[in-house]
Amino acid sequence: MAANPIRVMVVDDSAVVRKMVGALLQAAPGIELLHAVADPLLAIERMKHHWPDVIVLDVEMPRMDGITFLRKIMAERPTPVVICSTQTERGAETTMAAMAAGAVAVITKPRLGLKEFLNDSADELVAAVRAAAQANVKRLAARASVGATPQQAPAKLTADAILPALAESRTPLQTTERIVAIGTSTGGTQALEEVLTALPRVTPGIVIVQHMPEKFTAAFAERLDKVCQINVIEARHNDRVLPGRALIAPGGRHLLLRRDGAQYFVEVVNGPLVNRHRPSVDVLFRSVARNAGANALGIIMTGMGDDGAAGLLEMRNAGARTVAQDEESCVVYGMPKEAVKRGGVEKSVPLKSIDREILAQLQIR
């Protein structure tokens, strides 16, 4: 017996977007276009009769903006929402507010060349909708507070494309500098906010890959920096990894850890998509395994797919402690599940306990 299709509603004031996004979704196996409407007020009327499984939502619209609509949905009947927003600085800030209100994923659209973009991004859009449909709605309701977009590639490359594996494993020398490496995807913006806001000023240095498009990571880091005791910034090439600081990989670039004597720095590099993502968690985790070893803690959190599972195993084999977010607290239990399956996870803990795992790094000497 065939599974029920994913019923999707598109809410966008652009007739072109409604037509093209609707057609792309309707053509995808297992997805049904329920409605395509011009604004949230029309959506509310339609939803009185047919409630969608996933909503693809624009942010800036007349009569009612997308953020207000999103908050209404999350208060009335939490539903996975994919934000479809313009890729501009203003759009990034607005979209971050939408993510804070409970959206689970982001698709960026340009102001020009929209038809070509949507044609080229059909796989990305469909993957985002499928990821949203897998979201734990109970977690969305509990944590409507800070997605990620699976970025599709014709071929799935591994971390070898950026940083070849060592022929022989080696254990880096112990230092007093501790490193925490975090990887996450769908649902990760909300989860990261919950973890980072719980940390005091005195914490190990943190490096983070959150699957997110270009131009959005800077706004995301700025948002977190305002609400956290620690310093949160979008990583730049050669930034020092310091206690009390979290460096977030910029969208569209890979983040690697580098060691110089007893100090750690990051490299921000271009390169192909790895596990269909750039930045890739596997790339970061491999670099941490190679350059920090037992000085590190690896954490894999909510997300669709398997990015980070191989890298976390490399970290564990190099002597690092490794932790996964547990299934119940994940929005999507994909990446942690795969990491557990491959043997890379030392233990799984609820989201609310991850800050304690990070602080435990300070006690290891």
What does this 3D model show about the protein?
It catalyses: L-glutaminyl-[protein] + H2O = L-glutamyl-[protein] + NH4(+); [protein]-L-glutamate 5-O-methyl ester + H2O = L-glutamyl-[protein] + methanol + H(+). The protein folds into two domains: 6-139; 177-361. Helices cover 34% and strands 21% of the residues. With 365 residues, it is an alpha/beta fold. Helix 1 links the parallel strand 1 and strand 2 (31-37). The model is unreliable at 145-154 (pLDDT under 50).
Helices and strands in order, then pairings?
Layout: E1 6-11, H1 15-27, E2 31-37, H2 40-47, E3 54-57, H3 66-76, E4 81-86, H4 89-100, E5 105-109, H5 114-120, H6 122-133, H7 137-142, E6 179-184, H8 188-196, E7 205-210, H9 217-227, E8 231-234, E9 245-248, E10 254-260, E11 263-269, H10 281-291, E12 296-300, H11 309-317, E13 321-325, H12 335-342, E14 347-349, H13 354-360
Parallel strand pairs: 1-2, 1-3, 3-4, 4-5, 6-7, 6-12, 7-9, 8-9, 12-13, 13-14
Antiparallel strand pairs: 10-11
Helix pairs in contact: 1-5, 4-9, 10-11, 11-12
Structure keywords:
365 residues; alpha/beta; 2 domains; seven-stranded parallel β-sheet; five-stranded parallel β-sheet; chemotaxis
Order of helix and strand elements from N to C terminus: EHEHEHEHEHHHEHEHEEEEHEHEHEH
Summarize the amount of helix as a percent range: 25-40%
What's the domain count? 2
Alpha-beta classification: alpha/beta
Helix run count:
13
Work out the number of β strands: 14
Q: Determine the strand fraction and express it as a percent band.
A: 15-25%
How far is the N terminus from the C terminus?
57 Å
The gyration radius over C-alpha positions equals 20 Å
Shape: elongated
Low-confidence stretches: 145-154
Average pLDDT rating: 87
How would you sum up the major sheet? 7 strands, parallel
Which strand order does the major sheet show? 8-9-7-6-12-13-14
